[in-house]
Specification:
Layout: E1 6-7, E2 18-25, E3 31-38, E4 41-42, H1 44-53, H2 67-80, E5 86-90, H3 95-103, E6 120-124, H4 130-140, E7 144-148, E8 153-157, E9 162-163
Parallel strand pairs: 1-3, 2-5, 7-9
Antiparallel strand pairs: 2-3, 3-4, 5-6, 6-8, 7-8
Length: 164
Amino acid sequence: GALTPVITPLQAAPARDSRRLQLEHLHTEEQLSLVYAIGNNYLPSATQLLDRFLRDHYSQEIGRIDLRLFDLLHQIQQILGCQQPFQVISGFRSPATNDQLRANGTGGVARNSLHMSGRAIDIRLAEIPLTDLRDAAMLLKAGGVGYYSQEQFVHIDTGKVRYW
């Protein structure tokens, strides 16, 4: 089969209060597993890798991802007691890509999408029911949660608390 690119930063053994994320991108087939924060400190080298990993997979444009989005993902994994990687459908989206997806009639693409400001991500977990993922995100009351059962993903963002 095809080789899957893996990005792995060199790191010391993780501290007790470290926060880790494991992601696999369904479009680029890249995988990433790293500690992105220790205590109140975000690790710039790790957040830069996350920004690149969650780039617009159509244009390759890299946006700056809201650090709170990483924490939401980490908290969801804690709630679900799950160690498996999040499967990423969409992270950052350039305005041009967003307009193109809207023009193509792709469902659920908002004109002022928070994907364009690095404040939204569309994800799923292979072994976890989509409804459980949605419920865990809603439990946090930390932003928007969209449930797309047909498309098999949950949208999570750091905007106003709202559900659809």
